[in-house]
Design a protein that fits this description.
two-stranded parallel sheet; 7-stranded parallel sheet; binds UDP-4-deoxy-4-formamido-beta-L-arabinopyranose; Rossmann fold; single chain; 2 domains
């Protein structure tokens, strides 16, 4: 049973990935600093899989702690690195916090991985690196555009750092996964997304409005050059996304990777508008959503959806869930956490 470290393993995508890893027979060690997650997720994961994950509260910014952790766990075979700050707006306000939290920590991790006999590394990146792509669907070879925010910049720089290290390292193999828009929750409704304060992302805002926690959803922009005037995104069910991490890791562990540094898009390949997302919510929940079209949000691109051929062929992975499936799971999760 290979031992895998999941950093940020109590967060939204991290927790779902831990579940999938355990169900595939991996031994999982989680580190998380609980800055945007809660410790009871450890028990929630166990209540789904029946397997206790080892959890250590650890802040990756503390280099000596990272060092001691790896001395204790010399048998780690792979690392899936989720731990990072991810709020686009906040990153504009606090750039240094983002560079320390997302870049310094990556460097410390890679320094430790270099000391292992072999290191397999999966990195959480984002479709944000493409900006407004010139062609849709977006392929992995589409140019990386200047970042719109320090958050986006940390993903671009992170990818570059890993690529540079892979070039010279005879130990490190890495896969960068560029996520489109992860949404939804585990079918058990025991784990899901837990945004602190007012949600910035569309789906938690929709479900919180649906449940009565928010008065009204603002639809940012109704005058985009799309069919219904609202922005288009590729919403991917978090469980599909989590499964992709497991197959990417297996690819590295089995040495089936073609290069020591590879990049994959993770999306469904299907674009949906904001209004289509709202319709999907109304359909699966039976709840009429109070929403209003307002002005555009700064920094939003018109449309982004993935070309998924590379991930489908090379990873042998395909999404199973539809937008309706994802929306229903998000709605069940929302109802569950509000005890409704
Ligand atoms: C989706 C659509 C909004 C809220 C962001 C990051 C990206 C990635 C995922 C992760 C857009 C519209 C939203 C609302 C709305 N990062 N919207 N009303 O912006 O595509 O991607 O999250 O960690 O890097 O940029 O996702 O969910 O914020 O927005 O109309 O209240 O919903 O304009 O068209 P986005 P989102």
């Amino acid at each position: 049973m290979d031992k895998i470290l999941v950093t940020g393993g109590l967060g939204f995508i991290g927790s779902h990935t831990v579940v999938e890893l355990q169900q595939e027979g991996f031994e999982v060690v989680i580190i998380d600093n609980l800055s945007n997650s809660s410790e009871d997720v450890v028990d929630r994961i166990e209540s789904i899989t029946g397997i206790a994950a080892v959890f250590e509260k650890l802040d990756l910014r503390d280099k000596s702690l990272v060092h001691s952790f790896f001395r204790k766990h010399k048998d780690i075979k792979g690392v899936i690195h989720f731990a990072a700050s991810k709020a686009v707006g906040e990153s504009v306000e606090k750039p240094l916090h983002y560079y320390e939290n997302n870049i310094t920590t990556l460097v410390y991790l890679l320094q430790e991985l270099e000391k292992l006999d072999a290191a397999n590394f999966i990195f959480s990146s984002s479709c944000t690196v493409y900006g407004q792509a010139d062609e849709l669907p977006i392929t992995e070879t589409a140019p990386v555009k200047p970042a719109e925010s320090p958050y986006g910049n940390t993903k671009q720089i992170g990818e570059e750092i890993i690529k540079d290290v892979c070039k010279v390292s005879n130990k490190l193999k890495a896969i960068v996964l560029r996520y489109f828009n992860p949404i939804g929750a585990h079918e058990s409704a025991k784990i899901g997304e837990l945004p602190i304060g007012v949600p910035q992302n569309l789906v938690p805002y929709i479900t919180q409005t649906g449940i009565g926690l928010r008065e009204q959803l603002s639809v940012f922009g109704g005058d985009y050059p799309t069919e219904d005037g609202t922005c288009i995104r590729d919403y991917i069910h978090v469980v599909d996304l989590a499964k992709a991490h497991v197959v990417a890791l297996q690819r590295l562990l089995n040495n089936s990777n073609k290069e020591t540094f590879e990049v994959f898009n993770l999306g469904t390949g299907k674009g949906s508008s904001v209004l289509e997302a709202i319709q999907s919510f109304e359909k699966v929940s039976g709840v009429k959503l109070n929403y209003k079209i307002v002005g555009r949000r700064e920094g939003d691109v018109t449309a982004a959806y993935a070309e998924t051929t590379k991930a489908n062929k090379e990873l042998g992975w395909k999404t199973k869930f539809s937008l309706d499936d994802a929306m229903l799971s998000a709605w069940k999760w929302e109802q569950n956490i509000r005890n409704k």
